[in-house]
Amino acid sequence: MVEIELGGIGNLSNDPGVVVLLLMPAGSALSPYPDGQVPVFPVPIDMFTGRLYLRRLYRTLRGLDMSSEVLAGYCRAVNITLDRVNIRLDDSAVRTELEVSHSDGCQESLPVHLHRTVLVAVLNRIPVYVESSLLDRMAQNVRIQGADEWQDDPATIERAQVHALRELITSGATPDAMPDEQRLFLNSLDAEVLSALLDISVQAENFEWAAYLQKMKGDDEQ
């Protein structure tokens, strides 16, 4: 098994909107293949989730610590430790397992969703290991085209998502019409942006949104 870590962020050539985590051997333990290609295990994340967490992924890629108190608190509450994620090739299918240690010393492996688990592991510094044969196979079939160029920085993406919320409010739709991903993004906004959206909802006479945003502001101020 080879330990891999976030070595870059990219996009699919046939779908640039999809964020791809480029996981590479930790500490450059393996040299490039003869054609110069670096061994890489790509993990695509759905468009909205990838962009929602892009700011944190940038910070992780630059080595900045962003520990998750929510995840740490959960682990403390149930007395477990998340040891590592293992990605294996099993009968031509990729199998992902999360190794967990309990407070009594018992260990177990849980089958988990590849893409979601890898995203959580990368953001929370949980070690990720991939079977060497699977990494070899990926390296022969995946090509990285071009160097890192941030086409959409986090601020630009955030503006686009706020604009989508404004469009929803001015269209007369109710807060119940929000997709779950958009609701998650709304909950991450600070009081200043919420106030601006509140002003827009009042001007648009969308009083259901006005009441919803006013309640959110009140909850944040408590």
Condensed summary:
This protein is of the alpha+beta class. 44% of the residues lie in helices and 25% in strands. The chain has a seven-stranded mixed β-sheet with strand order 3-2-1-7-4-5-6, sandwiched between helices.
What does this protein look like?
The protein is α+β, with helices and mostly antiparallel strands and 222 residues long. Helix content is 44%, strand content 25%. It is built from 9 helices and 7 strands; from the N terminus they run βββαααβββαβααααα. A hairpin with a 4-residue loop joins β5 (93-102) and β6. α6 runs parallel beside α8 and α8 (191-203) runs antiparallel to α9. The longest helix is centred in the C-terminal third of the chain and has 17 residues, at 154-170. It is globular and about 60 Å long. Residues 148-152 have low confidence and may be disordered.
